[in-house]
Design a protein that fits this description.
This is YALI0B21824p. The protein is of the alpha+beta class. It folds into 2 domains: about 30 residues; about 500 residues, Orthogonal Bundle (Cytochrome p450). Helix content is about 50%, strand content about 10%. It is built from 23 helices and 13 strands. The chain has a 5-stranded mixed sheet with strand order 1-2-9-6-3. Strands 4-5-13-10 form a 4-stranded antiparallel sheet. The radius of gyration is 24 Å and the shape is globular.
Length: about 575
């Protein structure tokens, strides 16, 4: 037998072995696997490749939503993973300190410092509990109260920028000055995060010098998502570098950037320095163990603070303004209430005067986060024992989670779920008697209204729920309440619907101009699927790209100084 024949025979045997193995694996996953009974696309049942593909594409949240629309409230989206879209599943999986579940190995793709997970990525429950106890000092009422002047300073800068047509302005086809709202809210939230966490803002609202960090931060989060969906990528780095090179490189740069920021703050110590969040992190101790954070833990937490502290608030604020700008009846009513409550914009501060005096304000914020949640995908958990979730038997070792985007559009929880209706949050509670909409609420059966609002609350979780929910929720609401109220007091605004911006092909307020596609895709390449409105987005949706946190680019909005009455 010649050498060539030997090689051919060997290759044939290897191919037969691999083919046989894959056939057996496919047979097992389709027929004998514990999750075989649950519906889902054939390829999803066989491989995690579709999940990684949609994570890379940025439409993972829409992919889950399409699956839930087709298959129902429980979907098998990967061989060992199931997604739910109900409040019952949300409560079972995430509420309390459930012994049946633990964070999945998906979160191993997140740590900025190997071996030192953050409060977000810590999988071991005792480790997370210790970190959260320490972090709670930084997010205490005292700490948040001391941060208010710095938040207000940035809100004032944002409001000034919205009305300044000489800066960060795009001219519409008719010559109107417009603003790319997602960029301005990103500058704002990044500056607030810098002030509160590191004692110094990044001055993005007033200067372009540090704005490069936005794309780097988004790509770092995107890399974490892709690698979290397919854990082998960390063990096969050459594959990740080949297919996902630019987000891998940006993640490296971001880790270096966040370390530099944190190290600079640590070097300052406390001498002559105010008590920012980093002060509390450096000095707080766990009341149970007496231990605080060591240096590598501080570096890991700083990485988290930059992403979570900036991205989620920016998404929520931009989304709220977008939906108000598309629904002038709601915007005008909210504006009327804000201007009736306050004589001067300087009177507007975070607190009960806003939330209790103007309940429509929080309702508008909640409704925008329902339609465009800042973290739109699935937060996976691994079952540590056999469990029954919302009537579905899930075996030990399988990953489960709730698709936030899908649950927030589930008709089981929301009447007319695809419509923007902030009054859904008020029908079962307080409605301003002076509102022209109060009669609408009074015409609804009281019991039915209470049931509607309670049912909506049960299926609403923009910050997740339970012990692993977002620790910065109160801070985020504080920023959003004050910023939205001040903007409504100072400006009349709308989403620009001129030309392609109003065609609906790209979504209201979006088009295919350079403003919307710059930087998207590898090397800034324009991808058609990345520009046009996608299946799962309504025509008026504030569009998100799922990079774990929601990446956004839009919409185009016009702001005009309010006329004095």
């Amino acid at each position: 037998m010649s050498l060539l024949e030997t090689i051919v025979q060997f290759v044939t045997l290897v191919a037969a072995f691999v083919g046989g193995f894959l056939a057996l694996a496919a047979f097992y996953r389709l027929t004998l696997h514990p999750l075989a009974q649950y519906p889902g696309p054939l390829l999803c049942k066989l491989s995690s490749i579709p999940d990684v593909y949609h994570a890379w594409k940025g439409d993972r949240h829409l992919h889950y939503y399409r699956l839930h629309r087709k298959y129902g409230s429980v979907v098998r989206y990967a061989p060992n993973k199931v997604s739910f879209d109900t409040g019952a599943a949300l409560k079972h999986i995430y509420s309390g300190n459930k012994k049946e579940f633990i964070k999945s190995d998906f979160y191993e793709g997140f740590p900025a410092v190997k071996g030192f997970p953050s409060v977000h990525s810590a999988i071991i429950k005792s480790e997370h509990a210790k970190k959260k106890r320490v972090m709670s000092h930084a997010f205490s009422e005292q700490a948040l109260a001391s941060a208010q002047p710095y938040i207000m300073d940035k809100i004032v800068q944002l409001c000034d920028l919205l009305g300044d047509n000489t800066r960060d302005t795009v001219v519409t086809p008719s010559g109107k000055p417009a603003k790319m709202i997602s960029r301005l809210t990103s500058y704002f939230s990044f500056d607030v995060m810098g002030e509160l966490c590191f004692g110094k803002g990044f001055d993005m609202l007033t200067s372009a010098d540090n704005r490069f960090a936005l794309r780097m931060t988004s790509n770092a989060a995107h890399r974490h998502l892709v690698y979290g969906c397919f854990r082998l990528l960390d063990k096969l780095p050459f594959i990740g570098s080949y297919f996902f090179g630019h987000i891998v490189e940006d993640r490296k740069k971001f880790v270096e950037y966040s370390r530099a920021v944190a190290s600079k703050r640590m070097a300052l110590g406390d001498e002559g320095h105010r008590k920012d969040l980093f002060h509390y992190l450096m000095h707080a101790t766990d009341p149970e163990t007496g231990k605080g954070f060591e240096r590598n833990e501080l570096l890991s937490e700083s990485n988290l603070l930059i992403v979570a502290g900036s991205d989620t608030t920016a998404t929520s604020l931009a989304g709220c303004l977008h939906y108000l700008g598309l629904h002038p009846d709601v915007r005008k009513e909210l504006t009327r209430q804000v201007r009736a409550q306050f004589y001067s914009v300087d009177e507007i501060h975070s607190g009960s005067t806003l939330t209790k005096g103007i309940p429509l304000l929080r309702a508008c914020i909640d409704e925008s986060m329902r339609l465009s949640p800042p973290v739109p995908g699935v937060l996976p958990r691994t079952a540590l024992e056999d469990v029954v979730i919302d009537g579905c038997k899930i075996p030990k070792g399988c990953d489960v989670g709730v698709s936030t985007w899908s649950m927030h559009r589930n008709p089981k929880h929301f009447v007319k779920p695809l419509e923007y209706d902030p009054y859904r949050w008020l029908r079962g509670g307080q409605v301003d008697d002076s509102s022209k909409y109060s009669d609408v609420a009074q015409d609804i059966d009281e019991k039915a209204a209470l049931n509607e609002t309670a049912n909506a609350r049960a299926g609403y979780a923009p910050f997740s729920i339970g012990t692993r929910s977002c620790i910065g929720r109160a801070l985020a609401y504080s920023e959003l309440d004050c910023a939205v109220a001040r903007i409504c007091f100072m400006y009349d605004f709308e989403v620009c619907l001129e030309g392609k911006l109003g065609s609906g092909v790209f979504g209201y307020g979006y088009d295919d101009s350079d403003e919307f596609v710059a930087g998207r895709g590898k090397g800034g390449k324009i991808n058609e699927w990345d520009v046009k409105k996608r299946d799962g987005e309504e025509i008026g949706t504030f569009r998100l790209w799922d990079h774990f946190a929601g990446e956004k680019e839009g919409s185009m909005m016009v702001f005009a100084h309010a006329k004095k009455e």
